[in-house]
């Protein structure tokens, strides 16, 4: 367990506006204004202690690779890491079809981001993700992984990198239920990183390990439910409305989604019902033991939206809190990423909108650069106790951005040394 030492100060925080990159009419949204007193560390004062080292001082940039660099999530990794303060991308890898050619050629006609390929990446020669593990080890200190392969192949690939002493921060689902692999939402269960030592012992490594991020679908409701667990959540019903980028598609490559809704996404409902229980689980004997409650049932629906997953959430409690208590919990909820001021940590993890017609995908998915979670329409329910709507950006908070935030936390805590 990593210990933290910081001076205790009382900080007055008033949340009035949702910060968006563009100064447009979205700034006029009525954000829940709550003055809360948070016991918090002074900025940049947290000093994780591990083996006598202090990790507050900025170290040299670490070299990272992107495995699966040609896919949509891989492309998003590139845009997020282009000017990162902690990391510099030194290698790109993909399937054998793309290996041996410059990156610009590998993604020609397939670049799906709204901005051009960042400077410095176009001429990088793509390596073979499976065959060039040794080359990646020479070029990188750790890797991000987002590949489109069979699960058993992904598990073998990620373990090959970990055994080569390259830590793996994975966007894939293959290792999410490996008992000594932490599946992390950094604001919620950073304590699960403690199992990395047990995993290293199993793999026979000194540096190498695997850490994963959870499914994109749960990011729009698990953050909002987590601070309410203290009230004894008994049952949860969720319907998610998921963007086409979650399938790695655009409207050009997924024309059947135009003017259409598909009421099934393979595997999503199982993930959406079970992964929160691992997130809310505990570390015992070097493994993560999933929580056995609450009961969760979900439906996952594909909708004609480019980015952003919306969730309609219904929740039943053992001890029903008043509405103001729920709003106060959301307003004051912050985790270690906020305390450490990590580069991709949203200043406010959960932002509540007062308007009946918010949050909206088009208006609110880019909250805090796509890393914030938007919530609205909290009200009493006739069958459950409460219902609300949550929203998160599926390729930022729910995919590449979430993985980068995990890497930033691992970096600051010394796990990547």
Poorly predicted segments: 1-18, 20-28, 33-56
What is the oligomer described by this structure?
single chain
Tell me what portion of residues adopts beta-strand conformation. 15-25%
Mean pLDDT: 89
Structural class: alpha/beta
- Number of distinct helices: 12
Secondary structure: helix percent: 10-25%
The total count of strands amounts to 19
Neighbour order of strands in the largest sheet: 8-7-6-9-10-11
| Major sheet attributes | 6 strands, parallel
Question: Shape, please?
Answer: globular
Radius of gyration: 21 Å
For the terminal residues, how far apart are their CA atoms?
16 Å
Helix/strand layout:
Layout: E1 3-5, E2 8-14, E3 35-41, E4 47-50, E5 53-54, E6 62-67, H1 72-81, E7 87-94, H2 103-106, E8 127-128, H3 133-139, E9 142-145, H4 151-163, E10 168-170, H5 186-189, H6 196-203, E11 210-212, H7 222-225, E12 233-242, H8 268-279, E13 282-284, E14 287-289, E15 295-302, E16 309-317, H9 323-332, H10 336-339, E17 350-353, H11 361-364, E18 373-380, E19 386-392, H12 400-413
Parallel strand pairs: 6-7, 6-9, 7-8, 9-10, 10-11, 12-15, 17-18
Antiparallel strand pairs: 1-4, 2-3, 4-5, 12-16, 13-14, 16-19, 18-19
